[in-house]
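Q: Second attempt. The first request was missing the SMILES, so the protein and adenosine-5'-triphosphate are both included now.
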Amino acid sequence: MHEALVATDVTKRYGETVALDGVDLSVADGEVFGLIGPNGAGKTTLVRALTGTTAVDGEVRVQDRHPTDVDADRVGLLPQSFSPPTRLTARELIDYYGGLYETARDTDEILSTVGLAETADSWYETLSGGQQRRVCVGIALVNDPDVLFLDEPTTGIDPAGRRSLWSVLETLADGGTTILLTSHSMAEVQRLSDRVGLLRDGQLVAVGTPDELIADHGGGSRLVIDTDASEAAADALADAGFAATAEPTAVVVDNVSPVDIGDAVDALSAADLPYESLTWSEPTLEDVYLQLTGESFEGAGSRSATATPAVDSTAETDTAATQEGRQ
Ligand SMILES: Nc1ncnc2c1ncn2[C@@H]1O[C@H](COP(=O)(O)OP(=O)(O)OP(=O)(O)O)[C@@H](O)[C@H]1O
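A: Got both inputs this time. The predicted holo structure:
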């Protein structure tokens, strides 16, 4: 298996700040690697190291070369902050950046791919934030790169646009493009990535497939029962053998399989305890993130004992099943 990206003992200091602290990472040809971590963890710095836009200690290789020696035609980069000329239209911008390469994808095809066919002739400065981000994604794709770096590509893009860009990225991945993706959207990273790395304080503290990370760090499945009688309900469930914890307006029952839900409901019925609704969910990458970063959040029914506002609140709840309870 050939490695498209390799970082060996990469360290980056900004004065007293250690942005990267001995990072070792390799990404195989055609792999989609998701990089997650809190604000300031070092994600952008690692992208900058791998794209040769910042000097680091240690070794960095992109397709067996130092990043600054790689054929620019083969690499695409969407930086976290990117401001193209604002008095050009979306079409002119894609044309302009395409002209910087020996060969470029068709402008109309790119515009359509990123969902801008109808606003192609609007000035960049008159587009919404999300539409501007779509232009920037289009620019990153214009040279049909073999290796694509995307630093928070879908920030500011609405949910439908985000999903359509995920499809674009999945198509690129299916075609063999190597993608390094950073994002605060755990749903995005879980859906797109073959493997995920979590950076914390400049160190890569966990690497694995989403399933591996969830199995190792995500905790068990969970049933959340919304009820004002949470103390009594927790007692009734505990008596029935469940690991139940009372929160102010809910009971959280850990490690419940779907077939046990009926027994939990029966235990509440037997104690004549009403509930509003119940929600069962499996752990997700968000739980892994919360577990490994240890960030805290106050809230009834949160999947983890910890949570963080850094995590995208649009995270998918595909695995959640909600059922109205009796009154
Ligand atoms: N040019 C710079 N000068 C000084 N410090 C910097 C510079 N760039 C980054 N840093 C610091 O390096 C650390 C890592 O920053 P980096 O931008 O890589 O984090 P990040 O994980 O991408 O964060 P975010 O999720 O907020 O984008 C932070 O402490 C940041 O303040």
